[in-house]
Input
Amino acid sequence: MLSTSRKGTLLETQNASGECQVGETGFILGFAGLLPQVAAVASLALGVDRAIGHGFAFAYAGLIFSFVGGTWWGLAVRRPSRQGALLMVAVIPSLLVAGLMLAMVSAVLPLRLSLVILGGALMLMLPVDRHLVDQDIAPPGWMTLRTPLSLGLGVLTLIAGVIA
Output
């Protein structure tokens, strides 16, 4: 607990029953994490070098997609039992990004289509996040944070993919 004077706000990192929860810093940094993708989309919309804009948008979205898989991994290994299924799901984001990169360098998929696929995949993370909450694996406030971030980054990545 950070401060009794801010009780009931996002500043606290524990709720009334002492459980850890997503705090204000997590929200601030989480939403700040959308700024690089906003910049990539803005550069594409303004006609700045398209190859760099599309490449950056893919790299950043892929990095964050893999990062969220890593958070799932961290939540899974904290469980005393039944880690296996969640651990398998947790590696899917990294494997999908690696597969998309391989498909792009092999000229099987164009970068813009890979952005669209990755944007959709980012939004499809939400059912896993919901499962984590339903199973009491994720902390309180998880969906309040994850929903706008997954939708925000997913939509921005889709937009980057459709900007010619």
DSSP finds seven helices and no strands in the chain. The chain has a mean pLDDT of 89. The radius of gyration is 18 Å.
